Amino acid sequence: MLKAWDADGHVYESEATFSDSYWDPTFKDRRPVVVEANGTWLWLIDGRPFPVTSGPNVRLGGTPATKGGVPAPFHRQRPFDPVDSSDFQSAAARLAVLDREGIALQVNYPTMLLSWPLAHTPGLGAAIARSYNNWMADISGQAPDRLKWVALIDPGDPKQAAREIYRTKAMGSVGVMVWGVVGNRLIDHPELEPIWAAAADTDLTVAVHVGFSSVLGEMYFTHADTMAVPFVFPLLMGFHSIIAHGLLDRYPRLRVGFLEAGCQWLPFMLERVEETSPFAHRTSSDRRGTDAPPPMARSTRAGYTAELEPEAYIKRGQIFVGFEVDEPMLPYVIERYGDDFLFFASDIPHNHRLVNASAYLEGRTDLSPGSKHKLLVENTARLYGWPVPAGV
User: Fold this and answer.
1) Which of 277, 263, 261, 365 is nearest to 314 (CA)?
2) Cα of 308 vs its chain's centroid, Å
3) In what order do the strands lie in the sheet with 175-178?
4) pTM
5) CA dist., res. 199 & res. 165, Å (int)
6) What does the pLDDT look like over 58-78, one tens digit per residue?
7) What's the rounded Cα separation, in Å, for the pair 93 and 111?
8) Is residue 242 a part of any domain in this protein?
9) Contact, 18 vs 87, CB < 8 A?
10) Which pLDDT value is given to residue 303?
11) Which pLDDT belongs to residue 288?
12) Pairing of strands 181-182, 185-186
């Protein structure tokens, strides 16, 4: 059995995340706290409850797993993800889960903080991010060879976010998490350029993660609907913005990963982006026939400002995409685009995850041993800019 390199695990934020050890004393009376309401536990952040369970901008995920050290009822029934691992109470607790699931190394992301913004008081969002990063650096530092982490930033203040990228690089972060859309701004908006510049300068991977961060959420009122569209579609919008608008040309060494949306969307989005570019194959004479009207001129596709066709950014190692181990289209995506850019993610400890996911992938008969090794190990190294380990 291969020892997988997990590119996308998670932690549940807890009371410890915002404790005095990590929290900015400037905001001592504004820290997120766990409260009890109507028989359940919630976060109280900047005077507002989280999760948001009704109305526009429904946002679930990140319900406190503990209060005062006592596990929440939903966690007491999950022996495969004990609360001390989910809450990231110690490196030893998480490593026990990784050992059981055959994972040699894991890069971790937040859960509650997949939603943005959680705070509206000026500076509080950045304080929350700093506290989270301090906590992740501390616990991960107990086992730095096996537990890695990406930095959280508040994109509402891009200059401060850039400073946090530099700070966390020195603390050991291996990437920076962003969303595909920030409110009503695309992720490549000029105001957000300091974030991209800092990531490129520090050689940190930019991880575009699914999450609640866009105005799309204002149109959806149930958990099922928000998970189907506002949670995922901003990632696809970010994919288009990053490729089509020349960002990868401005930063040719930058690596960008797209996490937790599977890979079945990739052929669709690549074709959509390519069709609206000067490199559109469908409008070439050999595809359209001699009697077809002439294709649109390059000037009519002025919105596509990248130097290369979309697929080229995958081939030159700038674009990486996660996948689900049971996706039926995975062999097709590999056949079409290759196997050097797809990376494995366990999603530990989220309750919808597939337990022992790496073993499931190893058991598939429609993938070659070489591809399995790349997907389970090598491509995580490529994504985060590490030396690629030996093959099968």
Assistant:
1) 263
2) 25
3) 175-178, 205-209, 256-259, 319-322, 342-343
4) 0.93
5) 7
6) 998 889 989 998 888 777 667
7) 18
8) yes
9) no
10) 85
11) 46
12) antiparallel
Structure tokens at 138: 């501390």
Count of domains forming the chain:
1
Whether residue 342 contacts residue 381, with contact meaning beta carbons closer than 8 Å, is answered with no
Asked whether residue 51 is assigned to any structural domain, the reply reads no
DSSP per position, 184-223: TEETT-GGGHHHHHHHHHHTPEEEEE--B-BGGGGG--SH
Residue pair 252/193 in contact by the 8 Å Cβ criterion: no
Distances (CA, A) of 233 to 119, 236, 300: 23, 5, 26
Residue 349 CB neighbours (<10 A): 24
Is 216 within the bounds of a domain?
yes
Flag residues of the chain having pLDDT under 70.
1, 76-77, 282-302, 391-392
Give the residues across from 208 on adjacent strands. 178, 258
Sign of CA dihedral 229, 235, 236, 237: positive
Question: What does the longest C-alpha to C-alpha distance in the chain come to?
Answer: 74
Q: What is the CATH number of the domain that holds 167?
A: 3.20.20.140
Rounded distance between C-alpha atoms, residue 333 and residue 330, angstroms:
5
- The answer as to whether 288 is a domain residue is yes
Q: What is the pLDDT of residue 302?
A: 65
Q: Which domain holds residue 309?
A: 4-11+85-384
